[in-house]
Write a structure and sequence with these properties.
Strand content: 25-35%
Distance between the termini: 23 Å
Number of helices: 4
Shape: globular
CATH superfamily: Peptide deformylase
Number of domains: 1
Radius of gyration: 16 Å
């Protein structure tokens, strides 16, 4: 089952009660700095509502690699993500865990809805073994590398109360939106060079 039908299925379940997008919690919001609570029932209506809320929020923002529940003020161990920047490939990740495979790390640029007008160069494990639950309660165990591993680690950090500037080896803060956009385009080219996109 592809990701978009999952979201369409959730939307059909809620019909006229689809949740509205929520403003992002920003840097100093306390919810971003606490360890999120486990999801007790991945299949519950409450969990599905959170997933749909995250989807509607990231869709309204124009898409992105991922969004964690604490970023919209919900302290639960859940995030949605896309590994290729496409809205139709977004999937829910519930109660995730991971561990590195080997010690190899690599640096690359990241941004975050909760840390606006910034980009940071962050060291992360190149390859990880991860597990999570799906919206229908299945347990997934898989290995991720490159951008997929990076996205997973970035979103997982949100569930631990960690923001990416905490791990930066280089942080760029922009005041001019045009400069930010120019840097964003440069980062995209760098990702392409690295085989990330």
């Amino acid at each position: 089952m592809t990701a978009l039908p999952i979201m369409e299925q959730l939307a059909s379940e809620f019909q006229n009660d689809i949740p509205l997008p929520i403003p992002f919690a920003i840097t100093n919001d306390s919810v971003l700095r606490i360890k999120a609570e486990p999801i007790q029932d991945p299949t519950s209506a409450e969990t599905k509502r959170i997933v749909l809320q995250l989807f509607e929020t990231i869709k309204a923002a124009g898409g992105g690699f991922g969004l964690a529940a604490p970023q919209v003020g919900i302290s639960k161990r859940l995030f949605i993500c896309s590994f290729d920047w496409k809205i139709e490939t977004i999937i829910p990740i519930i109660n995730p865990r991971y561990e590195p495979i080997g010690d190899e790390m690599e640096a690359h640029w990241e941004a975050c809805f909760s840390v606006p007008m910034t980009y940071g160069n962050v060291m992360r494990y190149k390859k990880i073994k991860c597990s999570y639950q799906t919206i229908d309660g299945r347990e997934i165990n898989t290995e991720l590398t490159g951008i997929q591993a990076r996205v997973f680690q970035h979103e997982y950090d949100h569930l631990e109360g960690i923001l990416y500037p905490d791990k930066c080896i280089d942080l760029r803060v922009f005041e001019d939106p045009n400069e930010l956009q120019a840097f964003r385009l440069w980062v995209r080219k760098e990702r392409e060079k690295a085989g990330y996109l």
